Amino acid sequence: MNLFNQDVTKECLIAECWCSDKQVSQVQLVLRDASEQSGSSVPSIVNRMETKESPPTYNILNKFTSGFQNIVDAYGVASYREVNPAPYTIITFPFLFAVMFGDCGHGLLMALFALWMILKEKQFLAKKNDNEIWNTMFGGRYIIFLMGLFSIYTGFIYNDAFSKSFNIFGSPWKIPQIIVSKDVKTILLNPVESFNVSSPYPFGLDPIWQSATNKIVFLNSYKMKASIILGVAQMLFGVMLSVWNHIHFRRYINIICEFIPQLLFLLSIFGYLVVLIILKWFWYDATLLSCAPSLLISLINMFLMTYPKEPCFLAPMYDTQEIVQKVLIAVALICVPWMLLIKPIFLHMRRNRYEVLPSEGHEEDGFGDLFMHQAIHTIEYCLSSISHTASYLRLWALSLAHAQLSEVLWNMVMKNALSGKNYAGSISIYLYFAFFATLTIAILIVMEGLSAFLHALRLHWVEFQSKFYDGQGYAFVPFSFKAIVEGHSEI
């Protein structure tokens, strides 16, 4: 009441507030009921006011979506009617986390812990714990649950559970009988002779890679390329979302001068790199291994415009590659002055047609200011397209680190425990397993999980949301006596 104003007669109280359109009728009903219960002869009146102030942002949330919305709001609250990244973050955030944390066993433990918090949430809410660490984990219980489920899924793709693999469908690799009969510890299999191309492993990685000495070489290649594909796809999706902001806020000039050249620039370089990755996977098998091109060298040669024919791994992948790459380089180069010059020139010409009225308040920016602002924006986008694509390689790096730590822990602890051959071995298994479980939870789940969480957070805040999301708004905070009493709101 102390925030209300009085009218001229000092007989009525006047208050201004924001209210959701969907709840105006509900507010009127509550005020009418309050007037009747208080016996007032003068009813409360609710009037809509015209204002030039930017309205607050109000997102209808539930206990499942609130955690993901908090992740987005930590970067910045969306402006009124701006595209909200939270619905997409519900899927992409736990998935990118799982790409770095892919392990069926660790994901299962994480999902079970989150499920326990979900099933006991009413009891925990009634206790009102003041521990900030616990409240943070409990508030993100649904996020942790999805991260665990997605980690189980990617663990099946990596065929990895506590550094071990499942042989569900049977490996298409066949060891020659002459080798089986000999006592050898290391086997070099020629894929031309030992691999059945007609029946590859149906889902995930072949379990034979678990015992291969060149396992890391293969996984490095696979995960590095997959990281680039996922990164370019998410950045491309972010650029596509920006067009909805331009349409809603009627910034149609941004569609022509920002959205289209940004899209073409990203596709002409990194979209083309994704195409080369997929083509290499399809076109080059074991028989053409010596002539398989290096994609990094191919990308460098694309900018240098050099197309050697020898040796074979430097030769073009297809006949018209030289023409296609020259066209793509030309498109990328054209996009730079397109983003840099057209918008400031257009805005300057449009402003010269009309005289600025004194009532409009501030002085309009000159052409120099417009050009400088657009130059910064253009340079930032061009450089960030390169750095952000490279930044997605953290998906590969953390996935490799997690898998190697898990394998080292198994070999150093459980492998020794399972090597016992007498009755004392059963006691050692009990002790070793306690040590193994403690390190698994403390290092591989808690520490590695926190690391993967922070990296997934970075990828969403910087690499993804920077393509379309400004986050310059402020949240709608409804008046609530309950929130004030519980200390969650300020008067």
What does this structure look like?
Belongs to the V-ATPase 116 kDa subunit family. It is found in: Membrane. Essential component of the vacuolar proton pump (V-ATPase), a multimeric enzyme that catalyzes the translocation of protons across the membranes. Required for assembly and activity of the V-ATPase. GO terms for molecular function: ATPase binding; proton-transporting ATPase activity, rotational mechanism. By secondary structure, this protein is an all-alpha fold. The protein has 17 helices and two strands. Strand 1 and strand 2 form a beta hairpin. Helix 4 packs antiparallel against helix 7 and helix 15 runs antiparallel to helix 16. It is flat and about 105 Å long. The mean pLDDT is 87.
What separation lies between the terminal Cα atoms? 11 Å
Low-confidence stretches: none
Count of alpha and pi helical runs: 17
Mean pLDDT: 87
Note the main sheet.
2 strands, antiparallel
Instruction: Provide the structure class.
Output: mainly alpha
Helix content: 55-70%
SSE string, helices as H and strands as E: EEHHHHHHHHHHHHHHHHH
- C-alpha Rg (nearest Å): 30 Å
Strand-residue fraction?
under 5%
Number of strands: 2
Short note summarizing the structure:
This protein is mainly alpha-helical and 491 residues long.
Task: Record the SSE blueprint.
Layout: E1 5-6, E2 13-14, H1 24-38, H2 66-75, H3 86-101, H4 104-119, H5 121-127, H6 132-139, H7 141-158, H8 177-180, H9 191-194, H10 215-248, H11 252-283, H12 295-304, H13 321-353, H14 367-391, H15 394-417, H16 423-464, H17 481-485
Antiparallel strand pairs: 1-2
Helix pairs in contact: 2-3, 3-7, 3-15, 3-16, 4-7, 4-16, 10-11, 10-14, 10-15, 11-13, 11-14, 13-14, 15-16
Function: Essential component of the vacuolar proton pump (V-ATPase), a multimeric enzyme that catalyzes the translocation of protons across the membranes. Required for assembly and activity of the V-ATPase.
Membrane topology: Multi-pass membrane protein
Family: Belongs to the V-ATPase 116 kDa subunit family.
